[in-house]
Structures are given as structure tokens and as C-alpha cells.
Batch of 2 targets.
Target 1
Amino acid sequence: MMHIQDVQKPPGFTFFQNEEKVVTGTGEGVLNIFNWGEWGNISDRFPGHPMSVDCMVPYNSDIVFTGSFDGIIRWISKSEK
């Protein structure tokens, strides 16, 4: 099951890879990825937006679409394939 959360309403996050990872957007335009249960350690960081990440929508268990005030929709994939 996937979860969609508007990142403007804390805590902004979405699940990723069958709920084993959690993706959070930041005000600096970076996506932080955490392993579930390891909240003190960011496992991956993906820069991409020049401004804050304003929304995230999971497409499937490997792809998350993100949006920012710049009007560009971006996506990240964490697939091992």
C-alpha cells in the first residue's frame, strides 16, 4: 500500500519501495530517503528542485513524482534494476 502526503502539511513524506523506505521533501529542494525505522540516518539524498519540494505522489513502488514552485514535475526511481 502506498501513502500520499502533501509535504506542506507536516510531516511531509511518502512511502517508497513497498514501505521499506520513506521519502521526505525539504525546503531546499532536496529529497531525503530514510530506511524504515532508521530515522536518525538519511540513507540517500537527491537534489533536483531549485526551491522547496511542494508535493510528492508515488506512481508505483519504485517511482515518486515531485513538484515545486518552479512548475516542473520531476521523478526519482530507486529501482535496483
Target 2
Amino acid sequence: MEQLSKKKEVTENSEKDIQLYVLPQKVEYSPWIVKKAIADGTSQRYDALHARNEKTGEWMALLEIEGFDFENGYEYVINVRETTQADPYEKRYTLLDVVSKEESEKEWPGVVWGV
């Protein structure tokens, strides 16, 4: 049986349109790579949007969605363009349109750790 690698190599620039569900409050995001790089073991934390790709169900912490004015206390469904640059690697998200914006009092976990 062939074992699949979790490592994915990006060799081409690409763009795709995706729909995201955005939680009603920002979370503190701490990427693992930054934590490992800091000598005293503390981690850098950023305020980030916690969003789920509506097609794949994958959750992600996004520091910015270009053109999106997030308002705390509202759940959103938005359409965005995900632009991936291969070299140097970078992903950017740009708002295409807001599908829905609903007031919400839901409480979510406050810290997200990532790769």
C-alpha cells in the first residue's frame, strides 16, 4: 500500500472562488511555526477571523480578507477569491460579496493554534 504524504508542494499560482462561513467574533490565532521560532517558547498571537470553507468543511484562521469589514457580533456567509502565489508562497483572500449577515450571540473558543 502506498503511503500518501501530508506535504503539499505548490508550484503554480492559482485563483479560486470559495464561500466562507465566518464566526461572530475574532479569535486569537497563534501559528505553530512562529511559536517554534521564538527562543523563550512564548507564541505570537494575532486577532483573526475564524472561518469555515462551506464546500470542504475546513476551518481556518484568516488575518485579513481584503475588502471585508467585519463587525463583531454578526455571523457571515461570504464569497471570496482565494489567490495562491507559489513563490514565495502566499495566500490572499479578497471579498467578492456578502451573501448573508445575521446578528449572533454565540460564544466560540478564543484561541486557535495552527500550522
